[in-house]
Amino acid sequence: MANNSNLGAAKAAKNDEFYTQYADIQKEVNAYLEYNPDTFRNKTVLLPCDDPEWSNFTRFFAQNFERLGLRRLISTSYAVESKKYKNYQPTLFEMENPLFDIDKTRIKGKIFELTRDTNGNGRIDIDDLEWHYLEGDGDFRSKEVCQLRDEADIIVTNPPFSLFREFISWILEAEKQFLILGNFNAVHYKEVFPLIQQNKIWIGNKSFGGGMDMIMPKDIFDPSKVKKYYTDERGNIIQNIMGVIWFTNIEHGRRHEFLKLMSKKDNIRFGNNKTLKERGYVHYDNFDAIDVPAIECIPSDHDGILGVPDAFLGKYCPEQFEIIGLGAGDLAKEIGITKNYRGRTDLSYTDPVSGKSACPYSRILIRKKQ
After folding, report:
1. Which of the chain's ends, N or C, has fewer CB atoms near its CB within 10 Å?
2. What gap in Å lies between CA 317 and CA 256, rounded to an integer?
3. pLDDT tens-digit map of 87-124
4. How many Å apart are CA 148 and CA 365, to the nearest integer?
């Protein structure tokens, strides 16, 4: 499937329109319900940065309104004039509605709300959505969408990745619960990592690796620029976007599962990690910690600081470990990591096999709780 270069190119071009599949939303939300069946009960859920006519977020929460026990569902969209659509056409849903306005459809955002059984069929679902045009273009930073944020209990969406820092700050300044998609590189942002370290936000239930198969809008999809994609039974263009993960501050069960650990000796003797078998556990030259090449190599008998791969955050249990800091950049300076042999503030060690200095790829520093 497509690699990270696709995501990087999209960010550079502000082409962030990756739509989430219904099954992925369902699977993630179900994990929170398994931990706490009342997670969404009597709550107002806001889905900003959405296109309600075809958003699977809107579809999922509307179809499951009663099962989740929601009080109110709000979904807003951004005006199409702000997007890269080549041949935009209003949906039949919009055109056949008495509220349709040809002068507003391109420049105004829309708001869809669900609170009651409007068609009298005895249930509340997607057919009961009511909508109207917003006063502005639907930007999440606008006054009217900020007001909707303040009225909500939980915010769920797939925001533009290029605006991730700003979007998560927008959520947290209002002290809201959230479940949003982002790129795993966001864990290194100086605005994000301290919040992870303080257990104010964490990684969602989905596995950290493998990326996610996303729906690509046909109007902006260029097949000549991607390596692999496929078309599903509905005609949607599906492309795997590497590095996509869920960020949240809602509790789920996997977050509290302890990792099973072996001793250093047993990891080297019985483990399958080739790097560890060749060199053992090496101590960094510029920080008092040892390097751990893979999550399964985390030792049970080391009480000091460990440098582990980023993927650890997908297995992080706050009852078992504490996060000390980040192994590179300005945040590394703050915890005392000094410049390495290349003059950079990155962790480095001397390889006991080759005798040469080396830097491991992207480490998070942790310590086992006693």
Report:
1. C
2. 5
3. 455 554 555 565 555 566 667 888 999 999 999 999 99
4. 38
